Amino acid sequence: MKYWLIRIGILATLFAGIVGGARATDAVPVIYCTDLFHPHVDPDDHFDLACLYAIPQLNIKVIILDQGRRQQKQPGSVAVQQMNTITGRNVPWEIGLADPLANLEDTGANQAKEYQGGVERILKILTESDRPVSIITVGSVRDVAAAFNRQPDLFHKKVGRLMIFIGEASNPGLIEYNVSLDVQAFRRVMESGLPIYWVPCFDGGLWQNRGRASYWKTTQAELLGEVSKRAMNYFIYALTHSKEDPILFLDRPITSEQASGILGLDRNLWCTAIFGDLADMRIWESNKRFYLADKEDNHGNPVELFRFEDIQCSIDERGVVSTSTAGNLKIKRFRVLNEATYPDIMTQVTARLLASLGK
Questions:
Q1: What mean pLDDT is reported for the chain?
Q2: Annotated domain spans of the chain
Q3: What is the model's pLDDT at position 358?
Q4: pLDDT in tens, 159-196
């Protein structure tokens, strides 16, 4: 209990200096595609969304909510509205295509009009942007693949980095969940020739990470120990599948039973602090504390925890990626540089991002 009820706000000044101060004109424009739902499928999506909002160096142009038909029943827009309220941002959202792509060339144009908003907004943002736009996907890559199929030249001209959290790095026997949502879309994106920053979800099997995936596990007590009241209510709302008014809920009093119930849970994570790489941010250490900050600033000791390395690979009809010098695809793949310290440092950095929300 003391993680949240006693220590809340202690590091507010530090957090403001670490993650604040980015001017909107300097922030990297980002399109964010997520399989975020309420009630959730995986609560990590709510943690990812919160961390994205906590990085002012990223200018979120739109949030594309994956799997449009399901969004109508389990609207991820609820969490987006809450994050807009907590942070003062005004990020728009669209629901995406409803069905998997039929083949590698499928544009999704034959799907119902009510599911076209995601693809159309992606193309609009790219068309109107006067600078490269980065794209993050943390679910399927369906809407990105369909948009690419409609205007590939636009993508090659305007996409800065395409960071995709999907797949398994080394075990051909595991078809990772995000891949299973739309195999054709994954294949299309991987073969697109775009600047792919591939972040496998697992390496060596389910819940495994041998250094070429982003997965780690921690506790919610460590992640949420310093968050504001509104941020804590955002997570309580998500994790309890609440049906109350989502905005009014943010200012509700928090009982000790609610707090202890949330803080007592474990959490699987994949993304969070990695988002900062799109703005060329890095992890720093000062007085045994780890946090994310601008690469050019001096915040203590730089920490080389992970990087993206160039690889050659191929992808088969099942969506299995094989690395080989004979592979016809050249992309960048995530690599953990210190597997022993990775979970703890990523937890600390994530916790500090979350603690900055609304402060």
A1: 93
A2: 2-287+301-356
A3: 86
A4: 999 999 999 999 999 999 999 999 999 999 999 999 99
Q: What's 332's DSSP letter?
A: E
Q: Which CATH number fits domain 2-287+301-356: 3.90.70.10, 3.40.30.10, 3.40.630.10, 3.90.245.10?
A: 3.90.245.10
Rounded mean pLDDT of 325-337? 95
Q: Would you give the distance in Å from CA 199 to the centre of its chain?
A: 11
- The Cα–Cα gap between 179 and 223 comes to 28
Digit-coded pLDDT (tens) for 5-51: 434 333 333 443 444 444 546 899 999 999 999 999 999 999 999 99
Is the whole-model pTM more than 0.90?
yes
CA distance 313 to 333: 10
**212: burial class by Cβ within 10 Å (0-12, 13-18, 19+)?**
buried
Question: From start to end of 122-225, where are the E strands?
Answer: 133-137, 159-165, 196-199, 216-219
Long-range contacts from 104-108, C-beta under 8 angstroms, 24+ separation: 104/184, 104/187, 104/188, 104/191, 105/149, 106/146, 106/149, 106/184, 107/146, 107/149, 107/150, 108/142, 108/143, 108/146, 108/149
What does the H/E/C string look like for 263-290?
Answer: HCCEEEECCHHHHHHHHCEEEEEECCEE
C-alpha distances (whole Å) from 216 to each of 186, 201, 341 are 23, 10, 11
Give the position of tokens 């590939």.
152
Q: Which helix (H) or strand (E) holds 47?
A: helix 44-53
Residue that is written with structure tokens 């395409």 in the block:
162
Query: 238-259: per-residue pLDDT in tens?
Result: 999 999 999 999 999 999 999 9
Percent of the chain with pLDDT over 90: 88
Reference 334, options 183, 210, 180; nearest CA is 210
Q: Side chain identity at 197, as an amino acid letter?
A: Y
With tokens 């250094």, the residue in question is 211
